[in-house]
Amino acid sequence: MELNKIIIGTMRLPNRETAVQLIRKAIDYGFNYLDTAPLYRLQSATENSEAWVGEALKAGDYRERALVSIKCGTGNGGMKVGEKFEQEKGFGVRTAEDFAKVFQQSLDRLGLSQVDYYHLWVCHTMEQYEEAFKPGGWYEGFLKEKAAGRVRHLGITTHADSNTIINYLKSGHFETVTLPLNITNLTRMEAVKYASEHGIKVIAMNPLGGGFLASNERLKELALRYLMALDNVHLLIGFTSEAEVDYAKWIEETSRQNPMSPEAILEEANQIIGSSEPRCTGCGYCLPCPQKLEVGGILGYYNLYKFLNIESAKNQFNEIQWDVRYKLKNCTSCGLCESRCPNQLPVRQILKHAREILY
Ligand code: SF4
Ligand code: SF4
């Protein structure tokens, strides 16, 4: 079964009843891939995203019409390798035995005997990646399940920078890569290009910038249509209501009937953001930063807050200060990023202003 352009994220499902209805509606629309994880909407062993997905797939032939993807990782959800094994959440999975336990837990919650995809999850650093591939580790656990016919494909889910992602993909292990991608965060386009050239499907998470881009109707439409216009990119939308599923179907149809080029979409989106002040495009060419800062990602939040007056961008930025890549306070103003910026932006000055208004 070929992956549809729009696919189903289950991280934001509101409750069991709505989840079941909206998942079935989405599958009826042809959105034929479900991404879930042990931690998503985890309230108890029986009330969580995996269990709700499982219930949605019980009726009729929904299971036959949808690909199911689950995941767990060696990390702790952040930048470190997990110090302890957290089976319920799927974190700190560092041995093949741990993998088997989390894998079985997911199958039990889903009520399935096999799934289609498995992702190495929260793999943000090379250290977390290498932990997965050590002898007796995560990957050996995956291979055992694959040999037993309980899973077919391997993917990776990551927030790492483009170069690190390309290094993951060069291993040849992965058939899909799930990464953050939207019109205000294009820092990983090199990785998208590499994946496309090597037959690896790209799954774009955060297509609406965690919901920020949805605060303006036309911008929301353009954000989704931009990803629709990119070859080999699939939009992972974390649905919260049936109305959002209907909207996604409308986007799919509108994009087909009235196609726009990615360049035209970006141009119009930039006009809506509406300032002639030079803005970071999130291209990522200024990396690496000696302080490990994700300059384009940080300035994505800055753009939303400063140009669109989206207050939640500021809140979100403050919420991810656990992640060193967004810890703008660590910037030393060394100027390396500025010297590499192809847009010739006064990056140090912008970062200084971002620091003043975002914290
Ligand atoms: S100026 Fe700041 S963000 Fe830019 S490279 Fe130096 S430390 Fe990193
Ligand atoms: S600061 Fe410049 S090089 Fe860095 S991401 Fe933004 S536009 Fe690209």
Short description:
The protein is of the alpha/beta class and 359 residues long.
Commentary on this structure:
With 359 residues, this protein is an alpha/beta fold. The protein folds into 2 domains: 6-266, TIM Barrel, CATH 3.20.20; 274-358, no CATH class. Helices cover 43% and strands 11% of the residues. It has 14 helices and 8 strands. The chain has helices spanning 16-28, 49-58, 96-110, 126-132, 138-147, 162-170, 189-197, 217-228, 242-257, 262-273, 295-308, 311-319, 336-340, 347-358, and strands at residues 6-9, 33-35, 67-72, 117-120, 153-157, 176-180, 201-205, 233-238. It has an 8-stranded parallel barrel with strand order 1-2-3-4-5-6-7-8, surrounded by 6 helices. Strand 5 (153-157), helix 6 (162-170) and strand 6 form a beta-alpha-beta unit. Helix 1 (16-28) packs parallel to helix 9 (242-257). The radius of gyration is 20 Å and the shape is globular. The relative contact order is 0.10. The model has no long low-confidence stretch (mean pLDDT 93). Bound molecules: iron/sulfur cluster (2 copies). Residues 280-286, 295-296, 299, 337, 341-343, 345, 347 line the site of one iron/sulfur cluster.
Classified by CATH, the class of the largest domain is Alpha Beta
Spell the H/E element sequence: EHEHEHEHHEHEHEHEHHHHHH
Helix content class: 40-55%
Individual helix count: 14
Shape: globular
Q: If strands are numbered along the chain, what order do they take across the biggest sheet? A: 1-2-3-4-5-6-7-8
Outline the biggest β-sheet: 8 strands, parallel, barrel
- Overall radius of gyration: 20 Å
Structural class: alpha/beta
List the domain count as a whole number. 2
Strand content: 5-15%
Q: How many DSSP E strands? A: 8
Bound molecules: iron/sulfur cluster
| Mean pLDDT value | 93
Distance between the termini: 46 Å
- Catalogue the unreliable spans: none
Would you identify the CATH H-level superfamily of the largest domain?
Answer: NADP-dependent oxidoreductase domain
Assigned CATH architecture of the largest domain: Alpha-Beta Barrel
